[in-house]
Amino acid sequence: MRLAILSGTFNPIHKAHIDVAKYVQKEFDYDELLLIPAYNPPFKESCAPAFARLEMVKLAAKKSNLKVCDIEFENEKKSYSYITVKKLYERFPISGKIGFIMGTDAYVNLDKWYEAHKLKELVEFIVFEREIPFSHTSVKLMRDKGFKLIEAKMPFEDISSSLIRKKLEHGERVNQFIEKEVEEYINEHGLYK
Asked: How many beta carbons lie within 10 A of that of residue 133, not counting itself?
């Protein structure tokens, strides 16, 4: 089975996350694509509760026929991609390398991740241009360090979870950025107020 994953904080999950996942499903030859919310992300401080973020991912995925994997919720510790990927190889009959979806903004900091040099041997990075162009020196530097990437050619969507949180804090509508069910869940549980 060829597997791709889109993991992240999803604080909250938004339409660009879903669009990226659907693009990879359509354009690349993977049998399965999993959305993997982080239980306790190492680089993020203020997050909605883990189980609320998981529920929002499930709501967004349901509408798009995507699958959600809660593997990072099993030990309730910090979520490190290297450990998650190792567990996925143990759990699924994977052929080839796992496709690891990310933006250029995360890609240029990969060498700071936990066990990054081991992670790069286990996955193929499918990278979307986000804030930092593929032509930027920092992208070239990561390639020179051996972090190979597959450039995904989907146009950049200027949506971020931090922008959505700011709008929610000010009581603004965000239905153009997130699924209706996700917005209803946020309002019902008083998140990001």
From this structure: 11
3-157 homologous superfamily: HUPs (3.40.50.620)
DSSP 159: -
**Residue 18's closest CA among 31, 3, 2, 33?**
33
CA 127 to chain CA centroid, Å, is 11
Instruction: Classify residue 1 by burial, with Cβ atoms within 10 Å: 0-12, 13-18, 19+.
Output: exposed
Domain boundaries, the chain: 3-157
Q: In the chain, where does DSSP find H-type helix? A: 15-27, 50-64, 81-91, 104-107, 116-122, 137-144, 161-169, 180-188
Q: Which two tokens stand for residue 27?
A: 């354009």
Q: What is the pLDDT of residues 10-52, one digit of tens each?
A: 999 999 999 999 999 989 989 999 999 999 887 666 689 999 9
Phi, psi of 71 (to 5 degrees): -55, -30
